[in-house]
Amino acid sequence: MILNLLVGIGLSTAAGLRVFTPFLTISIASYYGVIVPPESLEWLATNQAVIVLSVATISELIAYEVPWFNNLLNLISIPFATIAGIIITASFLTDASPLQQWSLSIIAGGGTALTADLFSNTAHVALTATSGGTANPIFSLIESALTIAISVVAIIAITVPVALILVPILFKLIKWVGDFFHPSQNIN
Q1: Cβ distance 145 to 61 under 8 Å?
Q2: At what angle do helices 67-92 and 111-131 cross, to 10 degrees?
Q3: Using CA atoms, how far apart are residues 175 and 171, in angstroms rounded to an integer?
């Protein structure tokens, strides 16, 4: 249940930045059999869902590149991103009791999506104020890339045992800490 919650939170974070990207990621992964979608999202494994979500995602990614239009999208996206975060998280918590499922989905999924969306909105408004909107397309491109990366990593977390990901990171961290506290004496 904890891994599913983390996957839901990861995809909810992505939904807070771009609403359709996590749904497209789930759809493609389900369509190609990379993951078995939760029962409530089985419809995402269809050819029609992949096509519709591809068009919606590409349209959303392009629309965020228009400086004045992305501010409008940011306002509109607040409730949609929050609802998407709740739905995504709830769909991955099917083994939980209904109280746990919906409490965690609203607080963790919806809250994470809302937080990511509000951060994005604040950054876009600040960039518009400081750069006249000229920096917004670059920021939007970075956000879009981050959204895709978060969505893909969340799906990978379902398919790859966590140990395969964490063990190399842990060894690297231990090495870094050791190097930090015991620097090499070979300074020339």
Answers
A1: no
A2: 170
A3: 6
pLDDT at 184: 64
**Could you read off the pLDDT of 10-31 as tens digits, one per residue?**
999 999 999 999 999 999 999 9
- pLDDT tens-place string over residues 70-107: 888 888 999 999 999 999 999 989 889 999 999 999 99
Q: Which residues contact 26 (CB under 8 A, 6 or more apart)?
A: 11, 35, 37, 41, 44, 88, 155
63 token code pair: 């629309």
Rounded distance, CA 75 to CA 158, Å?
A: 32
Q: How many degrees, rounded to 5, is the angle at CA 154 between CA 148 and CA 155? A: 90
Q: At what angle do helices 67-92 and 136-159 cross, to 10 degrees?
A: 10
Domains of the chain by residue range: 2-181
Nearest to 8 by CA among 143, 146, 98, 101: 101
Ramachandran angles phi, psi of 75, nearest 5°: -65, -45
